[in-house]
Amino acid sequence: MECKTDIVIVGAGISGISAATYLKKKCPNKKFIILEKRSSIGGTWDLFKYPGIRSDSDMFTLGFSFKPWKERKAIANGPAIMNYLKETVDERKIDSHISYNQSLIKAEWSSKESSWKLTIKNTATNGDEIIFCKFLFMCSGYFNYEKGYTPKFNGIENFDGEIVHPQDWSEKINYNDKKVVIIGSGATAVTLVPELAKKARTVTMLQRSPTYIVAYPDQDKIANALKVLLPSKVSYALTRFRNVLFQQILYTLCRKYPKRLKKFILDRLKTYLPDTEIKKNFTPEYNPWEQRMCLVPNGDLFESIKDKKAEVVTDLIVGFESKSILLQSGKKIPADLIVTATGLNLELFGGVQLFIDGSNIKASSTMTYKSMMFSGIPNFISTFGYINASWTLKADLTSQYACRLINLMERKGYNYCCPVVPKNVDEDMDWLASEFSSGYIHRSKHLFPKQGNKAPWKNYQNYLKDWFDIKFNKLQDSSMRFYSKN
Predict the structure, then answer these.
(1) Hey, which of 19, 38, 267, 322 would disulfide with 160, CB 3.0 to 4.6 Å?
(2) What is the pLDDT of residues 321-349, one digit of tens each?
(3) pTM score, two decimals?
(4) Considering the chain, what percentage of its residues have pLDDT values greater than 90?
(5) Residues 336 and 379 in one domain
(6) pLDDT of 486
(7) Contact between residue 457 and residue 451 where contact means Cβ atoms under 8 Å apart
(8) Of 324, 340, 356, which marks where a domain is finished?
(9) CATH code, domain carrying 160
(10) 368 and 409 co-located in one domain
(11) Are 131 and 33 spatial neighbours (Cβ–Cβ below 8 Å)?
């Protein structure tokens, strides 16, 4: 089967819902469809089912700019976020645009036709379909949905208990009265520990090295007061701006005064865990915001540790026995269930094969333009959120930019546009790895585009700078080429 449309959005998670909402509002004359590989909306928030799943960003910035977050809790759990996304889809009448069980396998651009030819695999029927479109908008996230990352552990086959990655969690997994070991120290691990500790016999968070962990209230008292005093849109906008400003100031201070901020974070930890080995278990070797910080609402992780329901162990794994994990220190940790909260496998463009006029294009051979388009790839935008702030902030900006660009091309009669690197721009560094030392980024940096040494080819990770650029800067610059039919 073949069909034609103006725009194809790939993915019906936060990014795809944002893209669809802005297209409906800003480009009402354009036809678009959303291809969703799975059978439901939500993306990450529908995929992960592990206990206690929640946001690690406040919902005033993780929420959309156009839809106020009305719940009292600013740090929301997975089901609350899914309800918010479903409400957005219903209110904006987006569901009629979504085609489920549609996996994009290959995208082929033809400059002669000024068109993308998309090869789609129907995951329900296993049949192939073809779609032609003028513009391709990738909103498929940044990680592989099929499998999470688990290191190769020596002798793991000796373990007789159950081993599960959080990405594969299902309701069938029983942790009641079990000895649970969670391998990892990131956002997923610190979320799982206090939740599993409610029912498990013991919970141990086994980490190779510590992460910065910050306690924060799950309710924003000022925001909740503003909701009573002001219209929801006004209070939401004010709170969102305040939180964006706070995030940017914190990130800047961490970069400029890393030793002072490190001391501040660790001193706060001592007030929560006065009898804990802060230096060994909670003091990272890197500076604040060289990796993403972990947020624990109301200090729930620390409460579990103080109540002796959970413990943190910093050590290296050397092997496994049938009912325990062997550590470099000689210690053994008994276990019935092992949860490998060891990260994600990053993936750009959802693993789609890209061809430009017959030539296979790898993301790693391109340079990123405004952190959303790529050198040599026409009529193509990909949403990639911030590492140092909420994903949705960049998703909304990307959607707005896409609408401006599409409308400009419509007004001026352009068939397609394509970023081209000028001679005065040099390849500077990796797109993300130069800024962040996280293992999941460095494992996959060879797959990602490069960035340049100056705007608009440099990735600043700065929402306020991007906001002004995308809202007010000219679309036609020395790097963006526009093409009409001859």
Answers:
(1) 322
(2) 999 999 999 999 999 999 999 999 888 88
(3) 0.94
(4) 81
(5) no
(6) 56
(7) yes
(8) 340
(9) 3.50.50.60
(10) yes
(11) yes
